[in-house]
Amino acid sequence: MVKVAVLGASGGIGQPLSLLLKLNECVTELALYDIVNSPGVAADLGHINTPARVTGYLPADEGLKRALTNAHLIVIPAGVPRKPGMTRDDLFKINAGIVRDLATGIAQHASNAYVLIISNPVNSTVPIVVEVLKKHCVFNPKKIFGVTTLDVIRASTFSSEVSGADPCEVRVPVVGGHSGPTIVPLLSQISPPQSFSKEQIEKLTHRIQYGGDEVVKAKDGAGSATLSMAQAGARFAASILEATVKGKAGIIEPSYVCLEADKDRGAHLKSAVGGLEYFSHNIELGPEGIHKICEIGDITEYEKKLLETAIPELKLSIEKGAKTTITNC
Ligand code: NAD
Ligand code: LMR
């Protein structure tokens, strides 16, 4: 039995993400939780002829508890999206409280689950979830993931538009965090190998770092990326299920994680990024979640400079997330 819960299931991301999860035949129960409309979304998806039984929950009648109980995997796209002119950090005021309350529910009712955090600002919401779980003494660093898959999906797409390569085949590691200058694409490590001019690298790097802004601007006040994010979230969730349910080894996905999840390399990884507790890396998944956090490897001088810019901004976002949880809980 593989139960997956989506928290924020009626939203712009939540609905297409729930659809894609309903199509994943590894899932036997899909629990949709939101403060509005979740029973309707569940009724609609429930007519699709795949194995997952779909249930919808609202806050009334212990809806969060019922959605979370026995969940193997929880995906959180709950929270407000950006409008033009806003940074992801501008969402902190509202989304921090939403994520903190949902994390409290997870600590109480599904402390063993894998948790995938989509809600922005991811650089801060992941530390919020971790601090709540720590407070309840149920924190397992191998099971908590900030979803940065959209950054690598964009890196594959945008770099392929320049090189002409097949975007399905192209992989570009993206490290750091998930906001503007904290998004650090490592185009020197693109696979299959590809060489770009200095100007192409600078333009591509900027486009990957600010890909979210492209969508926010184009949607013109109607929100941010939803459909590409749903695909990114479903891909990441599918990889977690492949590794933790089916036992498939060697799956690598990027994610913003707590570096202590890798006991062997954690201290070294931390010192390589100025002592940060959280960082996005390529992660090798295993039957218990994070099996290994991959190192950054050889990078160019340009990429080193990008990292130097990312680290202080990430530090502030991490502190903000962790501190707020402590004072407000
Ligand atoms: P949306 O407004 O369309 O949907 C959000 C949903 O969350 C709504 O249905 C709302 O009712 C629900 N919600 C609000 N408070 C809730 C609560 N306490 N419990 C449960 N549900 C609650 O927004 P969206 O476009 O789906 O974006 C959601 C979040 O995802 C935003 O914060 C956005 O910035 C973020 N996002 C992250 C990435 C990423 O790469 N990590 C990409 C795109 C968007
Ligand atoms: C994205 O990268 O598309 C998301 O983080 C949403 C946003 O606010 O840009």
State the gist of this model:
The chain has 329 residues and is of the alpha/beta class. The protein has helices spanning 14-22, 38-45, 63-68, 92-109, 122-135, 149-163, 198-209, 211-219, 227-244, 266-272, 301-328; strands spanning 3-7, 29-33, 53-57, 73-76, 114-117, 144-146, 174-176, 183-185, 252-258, 278-286, 289-293. The strands form three sheets. Strands 3-2-1-4-5-6 form a six-stranded parallel sheet, sandwiched between helices.
Describe the fold and architecture.
With 329 residues, this protein is an alpha/beta fold. It is 44% helix and 16% strand. The chain is built from eleven helices and eleven strands. It has helices spanning 14-22, 38-45, 63-68, 92-109, 122-135, 149-163, 198-209, 211-219, 227-244, 266-272, 301-328; strands at 3-7, 29-33, 53-57, 73-76, 114-117, 144-146, 174-176, 183-185, 252-258, 278-286, 289-293. The protein has a six-stranded parallel beta sheet, sandwiched between helices. Helix 4 (92-109) runs parallel beside helix 5 (122-135). The longest helix has 28 residues, at 301-328. The relative contact order is 0.14. The model has no long low-confidence stretch (mean pLDDT 97). Residues 81-82, 88, 120, 150, 212, 215-216, 224-225 line the site of (2S)-2-hydroxybutanedioic acid. It holds the Pfam family Ldh_1_C. It catalyses: (S)-malate + NAD(+) = oxaloacetate + NADH + H(+). Keywords: NAD, Oxidoreductase, Tricarboxylic acid cycle. Residues 2-146 form the Lactate/malate dehydrogenase N-terminal domain. One of its GO terms (molecular function) is L-malate dehydrogenase (NAD+) activity.
